[in-house]
Amino acid sequence: MSPSSQAARDQELAPAVPLSRITGDKPVAAAKLLGAHLRNLRVERGLAIKDVAPRIRASISKISRMERGENMPSERDVWDLVDFYGVRDAHRKLEIGDLLRQVKAPVWWQQYSDLTPGWMRRLIGLEDSAQEIRTYEMVVVPGLLQTSDYTRAVVKAGLPNALPHEIERRVALRAERQRILEGPGTPRLRVLLDESVLQRPRGGAQVMVQQLRHLKRMALRPGVSIRVVRYVRAANITPPRRSPT
Predict the structure, then answer these.
(1) Would you tell me which CATH number, out of the four given (3.30.310.50, 1.10.8.80, 1.10.260.40, 1.10.10.10), belongs to the domain 3-106?
(2) Burial (CB count within 10 angstroms: exposed 0-12, middle 13-18, buried 19+), residue 79
(3) Distance between terminal CA atoms of the chain?
(4) With contact defined as beta carbons under 8 Å apart, do 124 and 117 qualify?
(5) What's the pLDDT score for residue 220?
(6) For the chain, which has fewer Cβ within 10 Å, the N-terminal or C-terminal residue?
């Protein structure tokens, strides 16, 4: 693929993300925004990733991950790229510096780094900055809506050899995640539950009663929608028509 066609393809795929300040320190969202901005700067100059990587002594995959916001970039790499792209505007540089500061800001889930793989940390970070969260569950109640006892039962089932303190740390992690549903700036939550989720007695009858009551309370909150996909709906499939013989 020629550099011009690569640049055209990048322009088509480049996310239209405005460079603006994020309220509060939200490293994952800041990394996504910073990466999108670096990608737009590269595309504006008609450069492919392979043209940029040698400038900061990096691999093509590293640049790609940086632009997708999957890597927490070093300050040196970012500023080297900014200089290479010829950015001179002081306000633009100030915005980039602010995003870099947020990328490096400490976050509450760092204390659970031994329990959270990279994809989970990105998920938690994006939840923290989301305006709306949508989820469809067929097996368990979504983590954001679980009671502590329900979470404990799920963890024990998935990790039968886990020690008690390991289980409790996972329960605490899930409870911390749920704090995004409290206070100002709460994201809208849209949940679809397969009916089987409500029928499985996770942790026993008492735990399920508490969980169902919690779901009912949460469904009454503004901005929260919980809908159940009934068995009859899931099975209501029109059979294919047969061609006349």
Answers:
(1) 1.10.260.40
(2) middle
(3) 51
(4) no
(5) 95
(6) C
Q: Name residue, tokens 């996770």.
A: 202
Structure-block tokens of residue 169: 């740390």
* pLDDT tens digits along 138-177: 999 999 999 999 999 999 999 999 999 999 999 999 999 9
CA distance 45 to 62: 20
Helix (H, G, I), strand (E, B) or coil at 137: strand
* Encoded amino acid at 181, one letter: L
Strands (E), the chain: 132-137, 188-194, 224-229
Query: Coil, strand, or helix at residue 227?
Result: strand
Beta-carbon count within 10 A of 66 CB: 25
Domain borders along the chain are 3-106, 118-233
